[in-house]
Amino acid sequence: MTRPRDLPHGESGLEFRWHKRCWWRRKAGCPRRSFTEQIPQIPAGARLTGQLRDTAGRRIRDAGSTVIQAARDLHLS
Questions:
Q1: Residue 31 and which of 1, 7, 59, 72 are 20 to 30 A apart at CA?
Q2: pLDDT tens-digit profile of 35-61?
Q3: Domain total for the chain?
């Protein structure tokens, strides 16, 4: 299970949980023995959704927010 962070919603926020399937390869010569599901918005190993990353970038680029202010507003470290 993975819990990538997404945009805050409401006062209490949301917790996103994704029960990913893990796949194994049976071929002995395959260099990559296992891997997990991924989608474009949440690639393997991502801790943030694409939507959250894009929003943070737009706040800095378009809204003139500082990096620190955008991080505070979106509850990022």
A1: 1
A2: 888 888 888 888 899 999 999 999 999
A3: 1
The whole-number pLDDT of residue 34 equals: 84
Distance (Å, rounded) from C-alpha 24 to C-alpha 35?
7
Measured between its terminal Cα atoms, the distance across the chain in Å is 22
Per the rule left: phi > 0, alpha: psi between -120 and 50, beta: everything else, 66 is beta
| Full domain range(s) for residue 14 | 1-77
How many residues belong to the chain?
Answer: 77
Nearest to 56 by CA among 10, 13, 48: 48
pTM score of the predicted model: 0.71
| Residue 66 clears pLDDT 90, i.e. is over it | yes
Give bridge partners of residue 42 from the DSSP assignment: 39
